[in-house]
Amino acid sequence: MGKRVTIKDISNELGVSLSIINRVLNNKPGVSKEMRERVLESAERLGYRKNKVAQSMARSCIQIGVVIPLEWPEYYNSLKKGLDEEFTRLYDYNVESKYYYVENNSSGKETAELLGKCIEDGLNGVIVCDAFPIGLEKTFSKLNEKKIPVVLVGDSKSLSNRYLCSIQIDAYCSGRMAAEMLSLSISDCSNAIVFVGNKDNAEHYLKINGFTDEANKRGLNILGVYETHDDDEIAYQLVKRVFEKNKNMIGIYSATANSASVCRFVEESGASARIIVTDVYSKTVEYLKKGVIEGIIFQNLEKHGRTAIKVLYDYITENKPTSNKIYIAPQLVLNSNLSNYFSDDDLMPSKEKQTVKSYKKQNES
């Protein structure tokens, strides 16, 4: 193997100072466009590659905070798995994680308090995982003033652009996929219903719009859009009422954490239904294997977590620009390809109790 190319080699070839080379390679201002192009061209031609591990050891430790709810473990445990995987990958790059757990997912006040703690702790960046980021404008302004970049995982509709980036599922596409799948599986009937947690949630709003637009194209008649408010009993009673009034085949799009309750009613009652749900976890997989569910819209929450950290790390270390919104494409999971998305390892007990212990221990210290 040849000798590793260093910034000194580039400096010698161009006859310019090391400080100029360093500025260009680290995307810092103060260098003309012409000189920047010359340095980048020379670096590429010579085969220069940054030694990121060595660079990371030479700088102070980067501390990244994650504000994440304890509620909805089926949803947030998958997201946290992706976050943990990326933090593990960055372990040798002098990066540390610090989790801040929100007990009440609907409490903007609690989230704001924890973000205030992130400021006090002097973190280099923060990832906010919040389905309802309401009332956080002032807190986000403070983070902005302190030059602490924020990556938001989820709904950004209620916030102005005081964050670096928002990582979101392509919710509109998810809705369209569900409508298309149902139109193909209920040829003997054209009626459909939609279940979401909350219509005010930007992600759910887009799923409804996507489903409605595609349903209209395909001749599906939407009997109603219902809010479960993420309550299993509400979801069960809602689907029960629908089938008390309609005995014919109905297509169901359940874009909510309460899909298992919807499936349970259909299985117990023997109601004539075709069901498309959101997210791959143990209960939805069980109903997919039984044939109660036709398919699952996979949101790839682990990728959300990995992407959030990668974007934040690249910005902190290299000031690398990014899109204001990054959309993760949904995928359709059927029995035939289930093994690509779910394995026996995913049947492990919920980590919620461990998470609660970590939360309490962190607040005691």
List keywords for this structure.
12 strands; alpha/beta; 365 residues; 6-stranded parallel beta sheet; disordered C terminus
Explain how this protein is built:
This protein has 365 residues and is of the alpha/beta class. It has 14 helices and 12 strands. It has helices at residues 7-14, 18-25, 33-46, 52-58, 73-89, 108-120, 137-145, 171-185, 202-218, 232-245, 259-269, 282-290, 301-318, 352-364; strands spanning 62-69, 95-102, 125-129, 150-153, 165-169, 191-196, 221-227, 250-255, 273-278, 293-298, 325-328, 331-333. The strands form 2 sheets. Strands 2-1-3-4-5-11 form a 6-stranded parallel sheet, sandwiched between helices. Strands 7-6-8-9-10-12 form a 6-stranded mixed sheet, with helices on both faces. β6 (191-196), α9 and β7 (221-227) form a beta-alpha-beta unit. α1 packs across α3, α8 (171-185) runs parallel beside α9 (202-218) and α10 (232-245) packs across α11. The radius of gyration is 24 Å and the shape is elongated. Residues 347-365 have low confidence and may be disordered.
Give the secondary structure arrangement, pairings included.
Layout: H1 7-14, H2 18-25, H3 33-46, H4 52-58, E1 62-69, H5 73-89, E2 95-102, H6 108-120, E3 125-129, H7 137-145, E4 150-153, E5 165-169, H8 171-185, E6 191-196, H9 202-218, E7 221-227, H10 232-245, E8 250-255, H11 259-269, E9 273-278, H12 282-290, E10 293-298, H13 301-318, E11 325-328, E12 331-333, H14 352-364
Parallel strand pairs: 1-2, 1-3, 3-4, 4-5, 5-11, 6-7, 6-8, 8-9, 9-10
Antiparallel strand pairs: 10-12
Helix pairs in contact: 1-2, 1-3, 5-13, 6-7, 8-9, 10-11
